[in-house]
């Protein structure tokens, strides 16, 4: 896959010195650039700031006879549930609209599984001798950390361009201690892969040994194309229902990358039995979520068609950044056998597989030159990339001029680390 | 306390028949009135709806160099922490500003204690053989339900006009299985009692056997006077610090009854060590809370002085309702030995102690006549009032005309239930 070109040591040493010179020059610039997190840019925030003004008249706060300003409607405003059902392709009765963070809804599901069990659990997971959780890797560090925080054993599953290695998944779920799996099915974090139809169907038709095995289907980038048209995607909920395990999947989404990352609305979608079960448990912790913000969002986003139009405007801001990243990777790293990557059509990341054993070193070099990236290893369970190879690039936050500079630094550091490694070997 | 007057059976029977007639007449009116929950009224919601329009310009979304629209600042915007510190009389570094529900922050503390333990816990509470929790009763049903949902044993502690019976509390905390207590220190739910200075000091100086014994100090009505001036109240956090157990207390408050019940902001205040510990745990479940709404609130409420002015306007709406309730109770029930109550100066409730054995019957009669009240027993652990006596009246939601009618029904039902009881005995 990644092979060291046949150069003699002298040539390598020369290359290394020239790269080092370039690196030292970049270091002198005293940069302070951040490509660490999938944060929307200020331009994107400004793009959607009309959201702030769509709900200012108290008369507008009433929706379907419910005053959004007061307590009540734990599972969300009717119009908000309808909005999300259209986006996800499920029924409103299969949705639960929460607060500003889908991550919190995911945590709630895992936390409730631990303390109380899920719909089909024989007992709470804290009463199990051992709980194992599947983590397609590279994946999203915050997912892994939730299950790690409850002491579950995290099992890495190889990611392929079609999604997780389903042969491995089907084998692993035969173990009754394996209670679930994390998935980002569309534009996966960090590689930007979209699960194939076959993968999705194999998920829906899983026959795990644990009766309460749970697919955590984080559809974070369900409408987040930045290149090309919106890509329809199968509804996992009806597929699981058709396959006879309707309670096996919880799907999640939010407007964190549609409107405001810190101040959007979130949704959990699952079988009606799961909705009823979780609503009962969530009713102990809260009276209701922020329905004013739910209504504000529905008024602003309207429906799927209107939201997709807005996503085109986000794409217009995002696309040049991804093009820049991919252009730089091609210019600087292609054909040298020191890095591989996939060009995604949506999502928030580009993932570079550096020469094994060089990811940490690359990012340490970046840091010394003032460029912050997601920590090496972060995309693997326990923060340990066994190959020390995967690097996540998050191009969304910096303005494009800064991004170009940051990518110059990154590519230089990656090449320098690869040359160091080749000289050592 | 409550004594049956010495009437002969015939007189009682006559009284009963006349009361029954009055009840039947009220039933015929086909009422549909709700005094079940401490929900602010539409007038109060309209009073504060300028909140919706104070943050519409994207330029206004930046506070202390932080863009409230983006991810970050898990423990809350600086200005929001300063706002709450002034309200509660503690330091900003002792605050954590959350989402729309302080109940959720309380749940988080108990849930984390169960799954991970608290700052001074030898182990997570789920690993303890038994966890007991003190519940001053009558109290708030949602508090009790949180601890019940984790399987803790709830121990009722008698409420007095000065707060919980502290002799009992000091005795009970000698048991290392007793891990905490629920408190509503100002205008307690439902009786409207404010803890005396002595009670507060005895709380701060508790020496519980459990090193992680936790006072859940729900200061829900900290600025919620509806009669008279704002009453200053001691800062429990510095008192616990001075007494040498700084990590023993978590205080909570929210704007649920200042701005919008479903769409306000909440705060948790505690020692800096506890803030650091909880921030680490909460950082697993969420990236940040809704800072746009935090900023919207700070812009609208400004500071303590300005907020207290607003609370005067709430009081102007609330006071006539409480006066009506107390007037009706006096007119209909005083001096008959069938009910007792306290006239509170703040909070959201009036609590009536009916003749033992008549609370359930009273509320069943109310229901048949179309008046919904908080379920009998709800203010006691496990929903069981051993005396079947306490009834919580929530006068805030209905318009005053409806309230008068509802109170007519309530008083009639209570008298009818008392007469039935006296005829049986």
> Which regions of chain A have little confidence, pLDDT < 50, spanning 5+ residues?
none
Computed over alpha carbons, the radius of gyration of chain A is 23 Å
Most extensive interface, chain pair and sizes: A-B, 53 and 53 residues
The ordered string of helix (H) and strand (E) elements of chain A is: HEHEEHEHEHEEHEHEHEEHHHEEHEEH
The oligomeric status of these chains comes to homodimer
Strand order of the largest sheet of chain A: 4-11-10-9-8-5-6-7
Helix content of chain A: 40-55%
Total number of helices of chain A: 13
- Distance from first to last alpha carbon of chain A: 17 Å
Classified in CATH, the superfamily of the largest domain in chain A is Type I PLP-dependent aspartate aminotransferase-like (Major domain)
Q: How does the overall form of chain A come out from the CA principal axes?
A: globular
What is the top-level CATH class of the largest domain in chain A? Alpha Beta
Q: How many strand elements of chain A?
A: 15
CATH topology of the largest domain in chain A: Aspartate Aminotransferase, domain 2
Main sheet record of chain A: 8 strands, mixed
SSE blueprint and pairings:
2 copies of one chain form a homodimer.
Chain A: H1 9-28, E1 33-35, H2 42-47, E2 62-63, E3 66-67, H3 78-88, E4 95-97, H4 102-115, E5 132-137, H5 141-149, E6 153-160, E7 163-164, H6 166-172, E8 178-183, H7 197-204, E9 214-218, H8 236-242, E10 249-254, E11 266-270, H9 272-285, H10 291-301, H11 304-333, E12 339-341, E13 350-354, H12 359-368, E14 371-373, E15 390-393, H13 400-424
Parallel strand pairs in A: 1-14, 5-6, 5-8, 8-9, 9-10
Antiparallel strand pairs in A: 2-3, 4-11, 6-7, 10-11, 12-13, 13-15
């Amino acid at each position: 896959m990644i092979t060291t070109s046949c150069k003699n040591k002298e040539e390598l040493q020369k290359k290394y010195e020239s790269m080092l010179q370039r690196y030292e020059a970049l270091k002198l610039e005293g940069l302070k650039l951040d490509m660490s997190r999938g944060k929307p840019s200020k331009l994107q925030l400004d793009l959607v700031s009309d959201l702030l003004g769509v709900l200012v008249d108290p008369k507008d706060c009433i929706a379907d006879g419910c005053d959004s300003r007061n307590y009540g409607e734990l599972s969300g405003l009717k119009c908000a549930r309808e909005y999300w059902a259209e986006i996800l392709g499920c029924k409103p009765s299969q949705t639960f609209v929460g607060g500003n963070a889908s991550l919190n809804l995911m945590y709630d599901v895992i936390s409730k599984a631990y303390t109380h069990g899920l719909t089909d659990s024989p007992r709470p997971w804290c009463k199990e001798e051992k709980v194992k959780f599947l983590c397609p890797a590279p994946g999203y560090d915050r997912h892994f950390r939730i299950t790690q925080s409850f002491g579950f054993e995290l099992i890495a599953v190889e990611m392929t361009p079609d999604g997780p290695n389903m042969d491995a998944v089907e084998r692993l779920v035969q173990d009754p201690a394996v209670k679930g799996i994390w998935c980002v099915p569309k534009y996966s974090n960090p590689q930007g892969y979209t699960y194939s139809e076959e993968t999705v169907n194999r998920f829906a038709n899983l026959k795990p040994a644990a009766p309460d095995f749970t697919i955590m289907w984080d559809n974070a980038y369900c409408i987040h194309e930045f290149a090309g048209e919106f890509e329809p995607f199968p509804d996992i909920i009806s597929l699981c229902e058709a396959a006879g395990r309707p309670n096996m999947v919880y799907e999640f989404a939010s407007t964190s990358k549609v409107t405001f990352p810190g101040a959007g609305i979130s949704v959990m979608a699952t079988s009606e039995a799961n909705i009823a079960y979780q609503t009962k448990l969530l009713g102990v912790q809260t009276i209701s979520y922020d329905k004013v913000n739910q209504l504000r969002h529905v008024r602003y986003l309207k429906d799927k068609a209107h939201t997709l139009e807005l996503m085109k405007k986000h794409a217009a801001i995002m696309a040049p950044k991804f093009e820049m990243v991919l252009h730089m990777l091609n210019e600087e790293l292609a054909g040298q056998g020191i890095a591989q990557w996939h060009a995604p059509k949506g999502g928030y990341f580009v993932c570079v597989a550096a020469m094994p054993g060089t990811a940490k070193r690359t990012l340490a070099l970046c840091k010394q030159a003032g460029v912050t990236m997601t920590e090496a290893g972060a995309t693997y369970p326990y923060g340990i990339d066994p190959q020390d190879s995967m690097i996540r690039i998050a191009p969304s936050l910096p303005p494009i001029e800064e991004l170009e500079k940051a990518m110059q630094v990154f590519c230089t550091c990656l090449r320098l680390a690869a040359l160091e490694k080749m000289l050592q070997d």
